[in-house]
Amino acid sequence: MDRELVGRASPPAPGIATPAMDIKQSIRRNFARRADSYDRHAGVQRLMARELLDRVQEELTLSRRILEVGCGTGYLTASLRQGHPGSELVALDLDAALIAQARRRLGPDSQVSWLVADGEFFSQGDFDLIISNAVFQWFTNPREALQAYFQALSPRGCLAFATLGPQTFGELDASLRQAAAAMNLQTVPEIPARGFLNSQDWEDLLSRAGFSPIQMSRQIFTANFPTVPEFLRALKAMGATNPKPRPFSPRLLNALIQAYDARFRTNGSVPATYEIIWAVARK
Q1: Domain presence at residue 238
Q2: How far is CA 45 from each of CA 110, 161, 174, rounded to the nearest angstrom?
Q3: 3-state SS class at 63
Q4: pLDDT digit string, tens, across residues 76-91
Q5: Helices and strands of the chain, counted as H and E runs
Q6: Which of 128, 152, 242, 254 could form a disulfide with 63 if both were Cys (CB 3.0 to 4.6 A apart)?
Q7: Around Cβ 111, how many Cβ atoms within 10 Å?
Q8: The whole model's pTM is what?
Q9: In terms of residue numbers, what domain contains 141?
Q10: Residues 61-68, mean pLDDT to the nearest whole number
C-alpha cells in the first residue's frame, strides 16, 4: 500500500490571511477544478517533464529519497517510479483532489508517500533529490522556498525544476493590451506570466540560497491552435488562469480575439509562446 502523510508544512500563523495565501488558494482551486481535463491539454508540460528527467538521470540513479513538489495529476510522478523503482518518493501537492488523481494513476506503491501540503513551506526531511515540473512559476515566496529546499537536501543533494518564464503567452499579453487601448480602458487585465521570474532571477535566487554549481537552460517553444477561443479554452481546461481574476467583459474578449487574429494568425493558426526554463542546482 502507498502512504498518505500528515502535512508537515509551516505556513504563516493560522487565522492570519495574507494576499499571498489568497493567491495560493485561488491557484489551488483553479487546478483542482480541472483535474479531469488537465492531462488532455498539458502537452507542453509533458515536454518540460521529459526534458527535466533527461537532465537529472545521474542524480536519479544515485537518489535514495526523492521529493516531488507539485505532483499534480502524477505525470512526472509515474515517470519517476517507472525509471527508478528502487527510490523512496514523497509526492506533494497543495490540493487533495490532485493527489487523489495521481494516486489513481500510479496505483498501489509501497515506495510512494503522498502529502497534501504547500510546497513553498515544506522544509523537513532529508532528500537526495527535490524535483518539480511547471510549478515554481506560481510561487509567491521563491526565495524562502529555495532556502528551505537547500536545508532539506542531503549533502551533495540536487534541486531540479522546470518552470515558465515571463515571455510565456507574449502574444496574449500584447493582444490584450492592444484591445484595452482600442477600448480606451484605464487599466489592462494582467496575465499571470507578466510576474513570472526569468532565468537570471532564478539563478540569482539559487546562488543566494547556497546552491553551487547551477546549470540553467532556456527554450522558447511555440504551440499552435486553430483559433484564439480554442487556445483560451485549453488554458481554462488546465486551470492555468489568472489567480487574481478581474471582470472581463464580452466586448473586451471580442476585441482581444480580433487583435490576436489580426496580429498573429499565420497559415490558418494562432501561436502561443512558452518560455521554458530548466534548472539543476547542487548543494
Answers
A1: no
A2: 27, 12, 23
A3: coil
A4: 999 999 988 899 999 9
A5: 11, 8
A6: 128
A7: 14
A8: 0.85
A9: 3-165+195-220+273-282
A10: 95
